[in-house]
């Protein structure tokens, strides 16, 4: 559910929504959401001073009942 919510949120921010993918991984530290976006959209998703990325992380923590990390990457990696 969290991965779908993050994907929906980010697809509405970027210029290339078809390049957005969110994958969820469980590890010992909790859940990890890996967000991949087009390299041209990475600045838009992170935002000035990381404000947009922090806002996304805040929304995810509000929706979740456990520890969740959100990593934002471009599709080249």
TrEMBL record:
Stated name of the protein: RNA-binding protein KhpA
Subcellular locations according to the entry: Cytoplasm
PROSITE patterns noted in UniProt: KH_TYPE_1
Lineage top rank: taxon: Bacteria
Annotated organism of origin: Bifidobacterium phasiani
Residues in the signal sequence: none
UniProt-listed CDD domains: KH-II_YlqC-like
Family: Belongs to the KhpA RNA-binding protein family.
Keywords linked to the UniProt accession: Cytoplasm, RNA-binding
Pfam families (UniProt xref): KH_KhpA-B
Location (main, coarse): cytoplasm
Task of the protein: A probable RNA-binding protein.
């Amino acid at each position: 559910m969290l991965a779908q919510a993050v994907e929906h949120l980010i697809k509405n921010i970027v210029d290339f929504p078809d390049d957005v993918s969110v994958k969820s991984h469980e590890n010992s530290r909790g859940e990890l959401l890996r967000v991949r976006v087009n390299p041209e959209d990475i600045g838009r998703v992170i935002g000035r001073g990381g404000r947009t990325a922090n806002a996304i992380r805040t929304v995810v923590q509000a929706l979740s009942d456990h520890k969740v990390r959100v990593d934002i990457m471009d599709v080249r990696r």
